[in-house]
Every structure is written in C-alpha cells, then in structure tokens.
Amino acid sequence: MDKLKELREKRAGLVAQAGAILDKADKENRGLSGEEEQQWDKLSAEIDQLSKDIVRRDTQQRSELELAASAGRQADLQMSGGSSRAARGEVRFLQPSEKVADYGRRDYKYEQFNLGKLCLVAAGENPANADLEHRILSGSSDVAGGFLIGDELSRQIWDMARAKAVVVRAGAQTFEMPSANFRIPKLTKDPTGTWKSEGSEMTDVGVEFSALEMRARTLTFWIEVSRELAQDAVGLDAALRSALAASAALELDRCALFGTGAAEQPMGLYSDVDVVKLPATAGAYWDDVSLSMKAIENGNLTPSGVLMSPRTHHILRILRDGEGRFMPFPKWLPAQVLVSKQISDTLGAGSNESIVVTGDFSHMLIGILSEFRIELLKEAAAKKYAFVFLAGMRCDVAIVKGEAFHILSNLSESWG
Hints:
Layout: H1 2-27, H2 34-70, E1 84-85, E2 92-93, H3 115-122, H4 131-138, E3 147-149, H5 151-164, H6 166-169, E4 173-176, E5 181-189, E6 208-215, E7 217-226, H7 227-232, H8 236-258, E8 276-279, H9 286-297, E9 305-308, H10 310-317, E10 336-339, E11 354-359, E12 364-377, E13 386-399, E14 405-411
Parallel strand pairs: 4-12, 8-14, 9-10
Antiparallel strand pairs: 1-2, 3-12, 5-6, 7-13, 9-11, 11-14, 12-13
Helix pairs in contact: 1-2, 1-8, 3-4, 5-8
C-alpha cells in the first residue's frame, strides 16, 4: 500500500508541474512555447509511465481483495483514508491527490489525440496531421448533431478540473457514477456500543440509514473561437482543455458552496438546512474560526479545510499585534486554508457580507459521468467569422453529513 501511495504522490507532483505550465500560458493568454512543449512532453511521458505502474499495482491489490472477499471477508464502503471502494469495486472514492484517469480503461489512441484539431475538423477546417482526429470524429457523432469525447480524454479534463477546484483540494471526494441516477447509503444515526452481561438481551441502539440520491446534471459551456485564431494559433488543444477544466472547477466550487438545489443545480452547503450557520462577532477573528472547528469536532469529526473569500483572507493576513507586527496564522488551523472567488462578499441584508466555511470535506461527494459531448454551432457566431463549441459535462454534488460543516456568516469588512 505504501508503494502505491508513493507512486501516486510522485505522479501528483508531476501533474502539478504540468498544470503550472498550462496555467502560466493560460494567464498570459498564449500558447505553449517550444521549451514549454518539450517540458510538457517530458512530464506527460513520465506521468503516463507512472499511471501504468499505478494501474498495474492497484489491479494486483484489487485482485487480492476480491480473492479475500470470495473467501468470506466483506469490505465496507469507507468514507475516508485513501482509495475507498465498495466490496466488489463498484464505486471508488478518490482523494484529491488521486486521478480519475488512473482507474479507467486505458485507451492509448488518445495519447496523441488533439482536442483542438478535433474541433477544427468538426468545423470544416483541415489541420495538418489530423488523421487520428478524423477517425475519431467519424465514429463519435451522435443523433443531436454533436460528437462524443471518449472516456480517456474526459477523465483527463475532469482531473484538470479537480486539481483547480477548491472544494476538492479541501478534501471533497470524487467518484465515477455507475449510472445517471445513483443512490448511496447515508448513516443518519451513528451506532452506539453497549455493554451486556451474559444471558441478557442486547439493547437496541437505533442505527438508522437513509438513501442519498445523486443524479447526473448537465453542466454546459459556451466557447467561441474565431476562425483566424483557430487557423493561426498554436496550442489550441491546451487552451481548450484548460478552458473547460477551469470553467468546470469554478462551477463545481460555486454549486458545492452556494447551489440552490433548484433549476437543475446541486444543493450546496449554504442552502443545506443541516449545516449550522453562526453569525461572526466583530473583532473575534480566529476565535470565531476556532468555534467553527469546535462545532465539527464535537461530532467526532476532524476539519480538513477552511474556505474564505479573497477579501476575508486579506483581513486575516493584515492582522497586527499591539506593536504593529503582522500576526501569523494559528498553527492549529487545518492544513488547507483556501481562497475561492466563488465565495461572495455581497451576501447578507446589507449585501456586503461574506462567509467562512470550515468542514470535514470528506463528507462532500462529487459524482461524475466521465463521457461528455461537444456540439458545433456554426451559425451562432457566423457574422464574426467564428464558430461556437457548446460543451456538456454531467455531474452532481452531494453533502453526506451536514454536521461535518460549519459556516461563519455576516462577515463584513468591520469584522477586521
């Protein structure tokens, strides 16, 4: 198990390096330079090799577990501590450092696949060296006029989105949904151990389960590309992947935190009646955050992350002691103190308030369907000599245990 963890951590480090290359180019609104492409290719080769090693070792471990299960041992569905799975491997819950792509069936034709070229071919262009993209496109069109992207590439884009999503970095667990509608057992009343004397009856401890319903909802993206840019620019493939991943990450964060549960949105923490909200006290600062942590710890849970807006993070960064020196963040904070621009500063009655979310984010689940589709809209932007790609990805967010989270509300600038 330790070796598998070591391989995954090494792969996560390389993926972070590769992601940094794409992020830099994305921020500077350009394609990859020649040197960056060489670095990307080298990192991709190392990541692919590590992925093969991980899959090989994990397959061996799964075989051993299934052999033990067939001998009478049963595995429970775990919600923490590494790669979780049902007894027969139906569902695998992934920790933030793990990759969806590591556990799907490997389709090696996608190693040289270029999403940018595929979109250009679909738009009627004829990019060089696009034989693979022509073959894939010819076999992936659907009845609605779009084309399906294979699981291999879909998982890669989902992994890029997960790496950017703040709730995932805080500890939310991801899994591939086995179907569009899926039910997960939810423990609504914890078991209580009781002592008994010989010959006496056991006490009914009243353990209760309910069903947590998850349904794949469609998340869509509108991407407009000018024909001049598509024909002339280098790095369209990386730009499209990065744009899809960044958009998916932002929307996952927004829905996980503020989804209303209506209009096909998932239900987020802010709307969940089981999540306690406590108004902040002016000048309390870290005392308020500690009270949030205490509320979670009282439920025998361990906070894994604290999420806040950039404004709130700024307020806490510039706290000073009586001599004007900056005060360091307390050492008792969870390892993940994260900032998300999806946390608004315009909440509350005065429309100038924010929140701080503290939680054991392993009790937040993100279910995904790996396959997604892209539809080409040639007429939508034809007057601009551009075309539009309408992309759709399917997923859902669910809160397993509301008591695992706590929200500090009514944080105005006067809090600092």
